Structures are given as structure tokens and as C-alpha cells.
UniProtKB/TrEMBL annotation:
Region (Disordered), start-end ranges: 24-47
UniProt entry tagged with the keyword Transmembrane: no
Coiled-coil boundaries: none
Protein name, UniProt field: Protein preY, mitochondrial
Keywords, alphabetical: Mitochondrion, Transit peptide
Entry annotated with the keyword Lyase: no
Gene3D superfamilies per UniProt: 2.20.25.10
InterPro entries: Trm112-like (IPR005651)
Length: 114
């Protein structure tokens, strides 16, 4: 484009900035984080507990096998692979990179190498 056209287009675009529709303004306004009166109450609540009923639906993303809930460590355990998925605020983190190797699996590897 010739320079004159680019300059006119840029100035037209700058001048054409219209206000967003009212619906968009309300959505943005509603999504702004503001402390609510009951927010301080939420911070005092203990972390949410994992619902063991979810075990009926959850499987290991790697092996597709059922998982076991370990309340003492707050993790979902795949005994076959020897990995444990953490549960954070009642929500299982099923990302394989977030899983840790369990001690049981390390012991099996050590006995197999000797």
C-alpha cells in the first residue's frame, strides 16, 4: 500500500475505536476480581477433601487402569506403574508429569537389579 493510504487507514482505525458492546462491558466488569464479603470466610475453610466416589470414573491416563486413593498422602496411586498423582484442593492432578514415583516401585527396581 502507498504510504498515504497506510497513514489514513491507521488514523481511521484509531478514530474508529468504538466502545465495546454493553454485554461485553458487563462480562469484563463481572470478571474483575473484587473481594466479596464472604471471600474472607472462604479463606478460612479447610482444603476440600477428595470425593472417593470419583474413583468409579477416574483411571490412570497412562495405563487406563483403576486408581487407588491413599488418604494419608492425599494421592491417587497406580500400583501397576508405581506412580502417584497428587490431589490438590480436592482435585486430582492427572497430568503424568505431575505424578511421582512411589517407593514401592523403586524397591522393585532395586531388587530386580541385584
Amino acid at each position: 500500500m502507498p504510504r498515504g493510504v497506510c497513514g489514513r487507514l491507521a488514523s481511521a482505525l484509531r478514530g474508529a475505536r468504538a466502545r465495546p458492546p454493553a454485554v461485553a462491558q458487563r462480562c469484563v466488569h463481572a470478571s474483575v476480581s473484587r473481594p466479596s464479603p464472604d471471600q474472607s470466610e472462604r479463606t478460612r475453610e479447610p482444603p476440600r477433601a477428595f470425593d472417593p466416589a470419583l474413583l468409579e470414573f477416574l483411571v490412570c491416563p497412562l495405563s487406563k487402569k483403576p486408581l487407588r486413593y491413599e488418604a494419608s498422602t492425599n494421592e491417587l496411586i497406580n500400583e501397576e506403574l508405581g506412580i502417584a498423582y497428587p490431589i490438590i484442593d480436592g482435585i486430582p492432578n492427572m497430568i503424568p508429569q505431575a505424578a511421582r514415583m512411589t517407593h514401592q516401585n523403586k524397591k522393585q527396581e532395586e531388587t530386580g537389579q541385584h
